[in-house]
């Protein structure tokens, strides 16, 4: 069985679904702080916080777990700048708990959701995995700490990992049964769609004085189902008893203004904007070099059209 942490969340629910479509049985763990139980439509759900080592051990005792996909984390750059300790504890300390329990039960296959935030302000784009790691915010820092721990842990041991550095994950499953829901939404695309759906009045553009063609930040948006499919490839890769790190992105960047314009096209709505201060911890440009995942894992982003990504997110959001 495959254990997925954070499977009631946005990315986790898509990974969980794909695992089932491919014949895997899953145990899904979530503390439901940010996740939603109705997003767990497959597998055996256990409400569990990773600080609860006793319950975690019980899960490993009860089920025959062969690999762990660890997606449970706090993931807001803004919140991490305000509460760095919270990020250190949740993202690093609790991952350590999970790894300790895995070691105790001799489970040695681990897929970890990391982030492009580990790179910080890039020296070059597209960013390859060899780029220096210099996070600009505690969120990226907490993920890098886990990456370093994994690399240490795999030396001279039976423990192997795949690290995926996600760029900006977007979109929703094509039949709209799962998608992105956050109590407090911070991500650009769902926030813009909320304006189109009349849930808020305008979108704030965080800075239009960046060194980019239109002055707004450029990001590489990747469809959540492409991220999910990489995890399937990751499980296959772990069969070789090797460890490695891969970027997940489409290899093209879109500015905040371009995303807003695409949202206008998809929704057929005018989206009012207001320019605000830069958000602390935001690099100007993040674009992914995804060649390593392509060459090594034979993984490719299939749903790499931003318009259709936004359309799938819109179809989900308008149903809520
Ligand atoms: N952004 C923005 N207004 C918002 C939310 C986000 O201008 O209300 C910008 C943000 O500064 C960044 C980009 O949109 O440049 C993507 O931000 P998001 O929070 O979606 O993802 P992140 O890049 O932080 O992972």
């Amino acid at each position: 069985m495959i254990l997925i942490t954070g499977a009631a969340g946005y990315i986790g629910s898509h990974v969980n679904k794909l695992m089932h479509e491919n014949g895997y049985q899953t145990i899904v763990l979530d503390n439901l702080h940010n996740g939603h139980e109705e997003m767990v439509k497959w597998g055996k759900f256990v409400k569990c916080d990773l600080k609860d080592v006793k319950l975690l051990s019980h899960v490993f005792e009860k089920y025959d777990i062969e690999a762990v996909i660890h997606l449970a984390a706090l993931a807001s750059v803004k919140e991490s700048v305000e509460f760095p300790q919270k990020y250190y504890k949740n993202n690093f300390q609790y991952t350590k708990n999970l790894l300790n329990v895995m070691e105790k039960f001799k489970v040695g296959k681990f897929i970890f959701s990391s982030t492009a935030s580990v790179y910080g302000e890039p020296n070059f784009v597209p960013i390859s995995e060899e780029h220096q790691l210099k996070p600009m915010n505690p969120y990226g820092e907490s993920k890098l700490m886990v990456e370093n721990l994994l690399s240490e842990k795999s030396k001279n041991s039976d423990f192997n990992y795949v690290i995926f550095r996600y760029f900006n994950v977007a979109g929703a499953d094509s039949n709209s049964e799962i998608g992105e829901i956050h109590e407090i939404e911070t991500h650009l695309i769902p926030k813009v769609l909320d304006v189109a759906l009349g849930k808020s009045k305008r979108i704030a553009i965080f800075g239009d004085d960046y060194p980019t063609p239109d002055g707004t930040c450029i990001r590489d948006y990747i469809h959540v189902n492409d991220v999910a499919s990489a995890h399937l490839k990751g499980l296959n890769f772990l069969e070789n008893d090797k460890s490695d790190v891969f970027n997940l992105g489409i290899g093209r960047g879109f500015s905040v203004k371009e995303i807003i314009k695409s949202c206008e096209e998809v929704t057929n709505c005018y989206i009012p904007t207001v320019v605000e201060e830069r958000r602390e911890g935001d690099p100007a440009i993040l674009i992914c070099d995804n060649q390593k995942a392509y060459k090594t894992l034979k993984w490719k982003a299939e749903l790499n059209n931003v318009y259709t990504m936004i359309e799938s997110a819109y179809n989900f959001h308008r149903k809520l």
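The chain has a mean pLDDT of 96. The two ends are 32 Å apart (CA to CA).
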